[in-house]
UniProtKB/TrEMBL annotation:
PANTHER family reported in the protein's UniProt record: DEHYDROGENASE/REDUCTASE SDR FAMILY MEMBER 7B, DEHYDROGENASE_REDUCTASE SDR FAMILY MEMBER 7B
Database matches in PROSITE patterns: ADH_SHORT
InterPro entries: NAD(P)-bd_dom_sf (IPR036291), Sc_DH/Rdtase_CS (IPR020904), SDR_fam (IPR002347)
Protein name from the UniProt record: SDR family oxidoreductase
Keyword terms of this UniProt record: Oxidoreductase
Family note: Belongs to the short-chain dehydrogenases/reductases (SDR) family.
Amino acid sequence: MNATGNTVLVAGATSGIGLGLALRLHAAGNRVIVSGRREDRLKQIVSEHPGIESVVLDVTDPAAVRDVTAQLLQRFPDLDVLVTMAGMMLPEDLHHADFLAVAEATVATNLLGTIRLVAALTEHLAGRPRATIMTVSSGLAFVPLPIAPTYNATKAAVHSFTESLRVQLADTRVEVLELVPPAVRTALMGQEDSATAMPLDTFLDEVMSILGAGRQPDEILVKAVEPVRFAEARGEYSTMLRLLSGR
Ligand SMILES: NC(=O)c1ccc[n+]([C@@H]2O[C@H](COP(=O)([O-])OP(=O)(O)OC[C@H]3O[C@@H](n4cnc5c(N)ncnc54)[C@H](OP(=O)(O)O)[C@@H]3O)[C@@H](O)[C@H]2O)c1
């Protein structure tokens, strides 16, 4: 992905990592379209950051993903980067059946949302001279945080889906990147002030330096995610799982 000159859709950019990345990409000379469900937030972002565009989109709504992306391509035929950032994470207690509502919403948002955006935009992206799909998994794709079982499962699935997507699209000019954040201070799971999560700006500084360094690795990994990302390869999976289990 070129660091500049792209037209980028960040789906899930009304707050946190998505908003932060959108603003950094905008500042780096990209045309950026922010997206999410909260129209008031989108309006505020656009008014505070002239040049940024927005579109309301709920990725759990299949018809909306189809229709809104089709309209978006009319407005921005040069769209060449898709970032599938939209995500949710909530704790689930698997002892009781009422975890199911959270589980289903999590699958619909994190996994189906990613897959639907890829389905809606890949043919267009493959027709561009050069394009990028950046999915967003998590360190928790590689060792689960047991209080959020379905979240971990969706992120492991996003990782796996991304690997296959990259192989299948190798015969196109679409490169496939996977952003794998560690714990970052955002509203996700209410960890804005968590001492164990990375400050958002520090995380974005490191991500932007990786994105700006020419050809990117398939996985965008900041240093802080490496212990969990490589726990299994390093023979530290059980120790990491115990740590994430609070045991
Ligand atoms: N923060 C972390 O520690 C961490 C670690 C690893 C991975 N991640 C991943 O990073 C991504 C961004 O999370 P964040 O930490 O920045 O949390 P966040 O501040 O809560 O941001 C979540 C974003 O997703 C959007 N979203 C949620 N449901 C959506 C839906 N149905 N349709 C469209 N957009 C939706 C939200 O916008 P609306 O509410 O306006 O729809 C918001 O912009 C997520 O995929 C998350 O899993 C985060």
